[in-house]
Design a protein that fits this description.
Elements lengths: L1 E6 L6 E6 L10 E2 L1 E4 L6 H13 L2 E14 L7 E11 L12 E7 L17 H14 L2
Parallel strand pairs: 1-6
Antiparallel strand pairs: 1-4, 2-3, 2-7, 5-6
Length: 141
């Protein structure tokens, strides 16, 4: 199981972070916060842990479930992923990135969402699509 956090700020922007170039899966690509749920964790416990580990922020609210999918990055292991629109507490201008895993971050709005497509195959715009879905949902709050 994989839990994904589509983190929205008060302005309706969504947080994205760039994976380091030496990552095995999706190297140097933009991504949302998230990762594998550990044995014994619920999806929301895993989501909260991943937010803290990858940003230093604290999960304060799960606003909505945005997307559910099963995917295989080519290693023969199917992942069941649930992505949630969330709010967090902490200094949103100073995330504590895991520098060995993520090299940069960006707060994305409608005008910037196209930048998330770099380093991806044209048919692989999942992150762009889920971030846009998060922007649209955050706009309605």
């Amino acid at each position: 199981y994989v839990a994904g956090a589509v983190i929205a700020d008060p302005r309706g922007r969504v947080f994205a972070q760039r994976r380091s170039p030496d990552r095995k899966i999706f190297p140097h690509c933009w991504d949302i916060v998230g990762g594998h749920v550990e044995r014994g964790e619920s999806m929301l416990d895993g989501l909260s842990r991943e937010v803290a580990e990858e940003t230093g922020w604290r999960l304060s609210e799960v606003v909505a479930e945005l997307f559910v999918l099963d995917w295989d990055p080519g290693d023969g292991v199917t992942r069941h992923e649930v992505d949630y629109l969330v709010r967090v507490e902490g200094d949103l201008q100073d995330p504590r990135l895991e520098r060995d895993k993520h090299t940069d971050y960006l707060w994305v709005d409608d005008a910037l969402v196209h930048r998330l497509r770099d380093e991806r195959d044209p048919g692989d715009y999942f992150i762009t699509d889920i971030v846009q879905r998060g922007i649209d949902a955050a706009r309605g709050l």
